[in-house]
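Working notes for the structural subgroup meeting. M.R. asked for a predicted model of this chain before we commit to crystallization trials. I am recording the input and output together here so anyone reviewing the notebook later can reproduce the run.

Input as submitted:
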Amino acid sequence: MKERIDLHCHYLPPAYYELLRRRDIRILDGGMKIPDWTPEIQLENMERLAVKYACLSVSSPHLHLGDPVEAAETARACNEYGAQLMHVYPERFGAMASLPLPETEASVREIRYCTERRLTGFALMTNSRGVYLGDPRLDPVMEELDRANALVSIHPTAPGAVPEGCCDTMPLPFMEFFFDTSRTIVNMILHRIFQRYPNIRFIVPHAGAFLPILEDRLSGIPQIFPEMADVDFSGSLAGLYYDLAGVVMPKQFGNLKKVTAPGHLVYGSDGTFSPPPLSLRLAEEMDAGLTEEEARLIYLDNPGRLLGKMF
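Returned structure, recorded in token form:
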């Protein structure tokens, strides 16, 4: 097993457990039971996967469950816990801070606080209470992230709307999470987010979801609508970073390599929500499917460059 850095890995801080308990949430929107998580469990899983360093983030359904004050307080508590983990385990853990989106002012305050505390970056859901990344209402948040030269990972969550009866027997992560990731990135491109905020380094999850398949179709839009002549779908997709969490070998990985260069790919285990045996099998398949040069870039060099650390 080759050594690697994990940029897509989830934790459940005590404040998040408490939020879920208070709301009597026992099954998450992915149809999964709430997993057990402790730093010790995390470190054990990292040893199995030869992970030297993991960037931890809170996953879906995230923190804003309808109460803005609760969301802001929970975000602060989770981020303080993440900062504490980084202090106790400086060579093993980074923390991607949570924001109480779509509360704009509270999120800007939290970005400034977490930047001062030197958390690794920020983890944003594809949408928050139905407000999608790229929405002009979130421009102040993007401006603050751009000023901070922030590293931002994007993670899917339940779509703002799902057709009635469409997924009654299908857990949301299997298809709807991919749709929501693709929808969000397209929305961000159409609102020129990547052009207007070039200092933010965005990581798209799960090998870009459906975006590699849609690229050719999307690239023709400016030819049909002159008002979109300055929208560069291919250039925008090529400039983003992508984690390889999930089942990406060999087909999805092959498509993604047609969209961006190997220097824009990083490893992700989707740990905590992917059972350890599955994570191990997927890691072994990835090892077997990568060239030595690709493995070095994806596992160590690319994440090291994004994190400003040598591995």
